[in-house]
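Bug report (template v2)

What were you trying to do?
Predict the complex of my protein with adenosine-5'-triphosphate.

What happened?
Run completed; filing so the output is reviewed.

Input:
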Amino acid sequence: MRMASDRYQDANATMSTWAIARRLPRTLGRAVRLGWATDHRAVLSLAACQGAAALLTAIALAATTRVLAGLFTGDVLAGLQGRAGALAVLCIALSGRYLFDAAARAAAARLAPKVVREADLRVIAASTAAELAAYEDPDFENARQAAADGADKTRDLILDTQLLTSAAAQIVAAAAVVAALHPAVLGLLLLAAAPCAWGAVRAARIEHDAHHRNLGDSRLRNVFRSYTTEQATADEVRAGTMADFLTNQYQIISSRLEDEQLAATRKALTVRGIGDALTALATAAAWAALVLLVSTGRIELAAAGAAAFALRTASAALSTTVRAGAGLFRTSLAVGDWHRFLAVAGPWTARRGTARIPETGPEVISVNDAAFTYPGTDRPALSDINLDLKRGEVVALVGENGSGKTTLAKLLTGLYLPTGGSVHWDGIDLAQADPATVYRHLGLVPQDYTRWPLDARANIHLGQPRPAGDPAIHAAAEASGADAVIAQLPKGLDTSLARSWWGGHDLSGGQWQRLAIARAFYRDAPVLVMDEPTAALDARAEHRIFTRLKSLAAGRATLFITHRLANARLADRIVVLEGGRVIETGTYDELLQRGAGSTFYEMLQLQEGA
Ligand SMILES: Nc1ncnc2c1ncn2[C@@H]1O[C@H](COP(=O)(O)OP(=O)(O)OP(=O)(O)O)[C@@H](O)[C@H]1O
């Protein structure tokens, strides 16, 4: 089993290194914009300190060459005395430069975490704004994972940018001095840096491409790792004696990842080695040229010391620039992933229209010839669905596993839009409605409800307390049977249920489900949808929910999915799904009267052991 690499990898592989390198200015622009969005002052102080450090570097270098030229006049003492001013300027400029450099690093360090937060917030915003169906698209998921890494790398983007601009400032200063001595030496020096830069950039590209090829496997390995070690699966792992199997899977994927990484590292090291060797040769040539220029009298001996110093400074600054540039290139690839996710998520953003569902919620939900096919699949999960759900009515949705019940519930609630046909709330097509105005009318108990690591109160109000305060929470808890759960908690509603994090309390599966139901009731929404709401409840708790459902459902459009067919008795209407189609509808009694010809009747007979 191997996860397919993502589409980005294929597109990226065809892009030349030069084309990617050309994106560097854009990446730098992004760094500046992100920084500006989070902390204007830090960006300004970073730029000011960096500028001041560059200026002082140039001044120090110019002063150094003057001092060195004095040393080569023959009389060292007299030469130095004559250049006492230059010496003083050198000392002041050097100290100032180190101070400004340190201040620039401090500003970058202050800015970097804020930029990471901002980048991550944009990933969060793009994810939550996306259509739910986006999560079914592997490209969206891979891009989302790469974006999380990329957002983290924006920290390096700031630090690399700071390092690069600092090194570049040194180069400009040193290059000016070298060029003043003889332009040919500067040309040679720049030429010498080229192979090293090429090797470093190419190696960064090879390593990043390998990282991308491995994204799918990395995701899979993380899943195996967490399933093997986390509490939620710990019982199955032990009871199923699965530890060896899972560890083996982990090792198989790890070996594949390591092979891929090793091959990439070998390739990258070779490329980098070739670049470095060529640079060493070219640097030697630059030094030889300097010797030649001095020996042929094209540069005076007095200036030779200064020239050697400037050459040394320039080549050191060049090598720092190349390293910083390659680092920035690598970072820019990762940050490009972050940016790419925002682009991938863009078309998935729920832009359905501006129609607003009225404040009072819908009176009728109607499904018209609706069909739904999951992204990346060929077989429709639902076809030819026609259904009405009215306010004040309770509908039970039943059918075998995989018949399409959960998918239909997601269409009715606007969580998915049909891929064919339409769903209307009071005549408003949900494809044209502002999703926020739809969702606020929903009370939903999903099949896989979440155990939020919050206190009991927040587990019910989910950060949206109603003006009625705790009495409304207690009323919802009472209706769902969660009141008995809360009564047992040492601090009642204040008890933390985030046991794995801060040592709070944990609940049983059924107790969590009671909270999940309470949370749907608490929203007091006109549309109530419950997907197997009592699957984990004991008989008494289940009975309590269903005997109260009628009064709770008064004034709401209620739909519940259940496999315990006897519960469907209290529904006003039962809808039976099979293979993604509605095959029967009717009241409980009507369906039973159909006898052996009715699927519902047959299923009920099986369940009751008749
Ligand atoms: N995320 C998905 N991607 C692709 N196909 C899916 C996805 N979720 C469900 N399906 C397919 O859609 C069909 C309907 O699934 P759905 O979950 O709606 O069934 P269900 O009736 O709710 O089943 P159950 O009773 O087991 O909860 C099934 O064939 C299933 O394989």
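What did the reviewer find?
Strands lie at 364-372, 382-390, 394-399, 420-425, 428-429, 442-445, 527-531, 557-561, 573-578, 581-586. Confidence is low (pLDDT under 50) at residues 1-8.
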